[in-house]
């Protein structure tokens, strides 16, 4: 990639592009789409993230285009003598930009921020269908240590 990549906190003006990244994700299949009907839902969710000091939505941009995103959250716990856990969620790189180093840059940025905040561990979940993503995370030192379970309470 010849353009300089900037990783920064997302702003409300990034929301449409972030939602488009998630909407283009065939494996995730969350049905995300920026529409007149859904816009207020995404704006409300972003406002909740933005006002909480333990959650930050980030974007990776180059040339004014959003090419990637992730949500970084911090969770206190009692295990590990009260260790702070960082949780990496909703990681996306635009399909035409994958395998170009953006994912590695996002991961390195998130890890540096987690260390800066004093986290003892970084956790992430990845769909069982994302075999390529699993290999990517393993190459970057992440191990498969748990099974994840999910129970839906509504349409989301």
From TrEMBL:
InterPro entries found in the cross-reference section: Acyl_CoA_acyltransferase, Bact_Acetyltransf, GNAT_dom
This protein's record includes keyword Lipid biosynthesis: no
Pfam families: Acetyltransf_1
MF (Gene Ontology): acyltransferase activity, transferring groups other than amino-acyl groups
Limits of the N-acetyltransferase domain: 5-156
Keywords: Acyltransferase, Transferase
UniProt-listed PROSITE patterns: GNAT (PS51186)
Domain of life: Bacteria
PANTHER family: AMINOALKYLPHOSPHONATE N-ACETYLTRANSFERASE-RELATED, AMINOALKYLPHOSPHONATE N-ACETYLTRANSFERASE-RELATED-RELATED
Name of this protein: Acetyltransferase
Protein species of origin: Alsobacter metallidurans
